Amino acid sequence: MTFMSAAVATSSGRHRSAALVPILLATVCALTLPAPFVAQRVDSVALALRLNREAGELARQGRLDEAIERARRALALTTQIRGRRHRDVAADLFTLASFYAAKGDYFNAEPLLDEAIEIDKALFGPSHPEVAVDLIGLGKMLAAKPDVAGARAAYEAALPILFAAITDTTLEDYKLAEYMGHCAYGARSLGDLYFAGKQYDLAFQHFLQAEQLYEIVDRQRAIALLTEMAEHKRALGDYKTARIFLGRAETLSHQ
Fold first, then answer.
1. Residue 17: per-residue pLDDT
2. Does 137 map to a domain?
3. How far apart are CA 55 and CA 97, in angstroms?
4. Which CA distances in Å does 205 have to 140, 212, 236?
5. Whole-number pLDDT of residue 255
6. CA atoms within 13 A on the CB side of 44
7. pLDDT of the chain along its 255 residues, tens only?
8. Least packed by Cβ within 10 Å: which of 67, 100, 135, 180?
9. Residues in Cβ contact with 220 at an 8 Å cutoff, skipping those fewer than 6 apart
10. How many domains, in total, are found in the chain?
11. Buried b (16+ CB within 10 A) or exposed e, 167-204
12. Which residues have C-beta within 8 Å of that of residue 31, sequence separation ≥ 6?
């Protein structure tokens, strides 16, 4: 996943249930606050959500400067409504950081992402899977920068948390699929970094972990990864294993 696609994917807020927020807020506030205040607050929440949706659409069109402007306005509104230490603020920080990173502006992206991670650590604890998702995002940005050591550290910190999370039998299906997807991406990306550093055993260990997860959540990515693994094995002179990977890819493509 490129930073452009990551930015678009996060533009509605990683932690938000966007359609329900204004309704729930109006219901709760109406019981305790004056009507004009309630209306203004609900309008502000709705505007922040709309700005984030517009930012995502602009990013899809490659209009990143305009996307950043919308995302900055959304962040300011969310901060005004929620206070700075809130999960929705962390989501908006993450989104804005992703847009900056998609432009290659890591100077502005990195502190925003660092703040999002610190907010989520304070809210959820350092070993929560939402923090691990943040760390995967940090790894993407650092790998693109490129800061290989920093990216490896971020992925290595995130993956044990996510692997533990996906064994939780109480997770709802949609959240399990989400964490599996992030885990697969992190394992595959860490494998790429190990392969580039000629640590081939570690690379294929992570490639295989990613491929197994992709078979569950995204078969086309599993096929693509198996094909790439076969190419790597051929380049290393291991034609037997390359044929095994290609055979598995062929089997998946016909299932």
1. 47
2. yes
3. 12
4. 20, 11, 16
5. 86
6. 16
7. 455 554 544 443 454 544 444 544 444 454 555 555 445 556 777 888 899 899 999 999 999 999 999 999 999 999 998 888 999 999 999 999 999 999 999 999 999 999 999 999 999 999 999 999 999 999 999 999 899 999 999 999 999 999 999 999 899 999 999 999 999 999 999 999 999 999 999 999 999 999 999 999 999 999 999 999 999 999 999 999 999 999 999 999 998
8. 180
9. none
10. 1
11. eeeebeeeebebbbbbbbbbbbbbbbbbbeeeeeeebb
12. none
Cα separation, 89 vs 64, in Å, equals 20
For tokens 């076969």, name the residue.
Answer: 230
C-alpha atoms less than 13 angstroms from C-alpha of 50 in its C-beta half-sphere: 7
Q: Is residue 66 domain-resident?
A: yes
Amino acid at 38: V
Backbone angles phi, psi at 19, to 5 degrees: -70, -25
The verdict on residue 238 lying in a domain is no
CATH number at residue 56: 1.25.40.10
Q: In angstroms, rounded to a whole number, what is the distance separating the alpha carbons of residues 237 and 240?
A: 9
User: Is 255 within the bounds of a domain?
Assistant: no
- Determine the structural domain holding residue 17 and report its residue range: 3-180
CA distance 49 to 32: 24
